[in-house]
Task: structure prediction
Amino acid sequence: MADEVPSGQAIIPSTEPADGGEIEMQVAVACIDASGSPDMPVFKVRVTQEEYDLDIHYDKARDLAEDARYEGPFICFDAAEYGPILSAARELGLVPQVVVVDITEGQIHSIRCDSGEIKVICYDTSDTGEYSAAVANRPLGENGQFVRCWSHTQLAQSIPA
Result:
């Protein structure tokens, strides 16, 4: 999957240009994934201060999302914006913070979360040589790059209080 910001932390873009006069920053993009489910991958982009001031970092993140086969509508948030948005969503209990996966004896038996609903993707790249309907190229790598892997997708059920 795309590079994620550690839970509860926002990285404010530096006004100090990195090498070549560019700022490297992370931009979250609310969009729809290939299976039709809502998603919010986070992409690294590099922009000059002038491009940042013109909001071109959003255009670059949107382009990366399209390249990774996500679909619109695309709503972009830079680190200064998505930190407070995620914090408010967590405070209101809209974003699961705990996901429990029962993988007794190497098999997935159940997936549960503390609030709402969350899509969980479990994947394994260690045994992809043989043909299987579960083995495919999926956009699970950094910046949505495709990874050949076995995967299982399941919605987590809320844990009873």
Remarks:
- The first strand starts at residue 22 and ends at 32.
- The chain has two domains: 19-91, 99-158.
- Strands lie at 22-32, 38-39, 42-48, 71-78, 99-102, 110-113, 118-124, 135-138, 147-158.
